[in-house]
Design goal:
By secondary structure, the protein is mainly α. The protein has one domain. It contains ten helices and two strands. It has a two-stranded antiparallel ribbon with strand order 1-2. Helix 2 runs antiparallel to helix 3.
Length: about 240
């Protein structure tokens, strides 16, 4: 237990107090935002926007470019989603956008967003030499697998940019789907959170790691709740 506590608290021993408070506030607002999303409440966007803007600042200080890109995108998509959820699509019935499933075009757009985002993040990481920029595709895959399966924490950390690439691509898709009230957004959020929980603990950001664990639970519950709402909507 002491080892676990030290693992969580050691990174904060040298951190500035205001940075710790900012991370805690951003994490709590992020959790609140996902809770509102689960409840299909438009407050998901203002709470999420404040959280992501705080993370934009924090991540710029931590030099995590992939996560920084994610949160800039989250901020933009929060504004877009806020507009989409508040927009009246039928003025006679005062109806707003409702939960639905993705169609073929939505799936195609999602795939395009994932590929474009992943390639962009890889290009940024290679430019700043966060990823080894002298490796071809197969060598990069072998390098990532070797580091991910290493028992050495320092070696494992060298593979985090590869995990960042996946989480960034999947998160971009998830946020776009959520802004359009597509139920599949929860599948992508679940995938992102499964990877992000250990990733943030390895990086040494305990509050954020705990936040993503709660995100994972809420994403599972969110999918279940939206599934039942969609089922009821289809019956009417």
């Amino acid at each position: 237990m002491e080892t676990v506590i030290n693992f969580l608290t050691d990174p904060y021993k040298t951190a500035e107090t205001y940075m710790i408070w900012l991370e805690l506030i951003a994490a709590l607002l992020g959790i609140l935002s996902v809770w509102f999303s689960k409840k299909e409440n438009i407050l998901v966007f203002p709470t999420g926007l404040v959280s992501t803007l705080i993370y934009v600042y924090l991540l710029s200080q931590w030099n995590y470019y992939g996560d920084l890109i994610i949160n800039i995108y989250y901020s933009i998509m929060s504004i877009y989603g806020w507009y989409m959820w508040s927009r009246v699509i039928d003025k006679t019935k005062n109806e707003h956008i409702s939960i639905s499933r993705t169609n073929f075009i939505d799936k195609l757009k999602s795939f395009g967003i994932f590929v474009f985002t992943s390639v962009f993040v890889i290009a940024v990481y290679r430019h700043y030499n966060v990823m080894p920029n002298n490796l071809n595709f197969s060598q990069s895959v072998n390098y990532a697998i070797e580091k991910l399966t290493s028992n050495n924490l320092q070696e494992f950390r060298k593979a985090t940019p590869y995990l960042d690439t996946f989480t960034t691509g999947a998160a971009f898709v998830a946020m776009w789907l959520m802004a359009n009230k597509k139920i599949e957004n929860w599948i992508f959020w679940i995938s992102v959170n499964i990877v992000s929980v250990p990733l943030y603990f390895v990086k040494g950001y305990g509050f954020t790691g705990i936040q993503y664990f709660i995100f994972l639970i809420l994403a599972i519950l969110g999918y279940i709740e939206w599934y039942h709402k969609l089922k009821m909507h289809n019956k009417t």
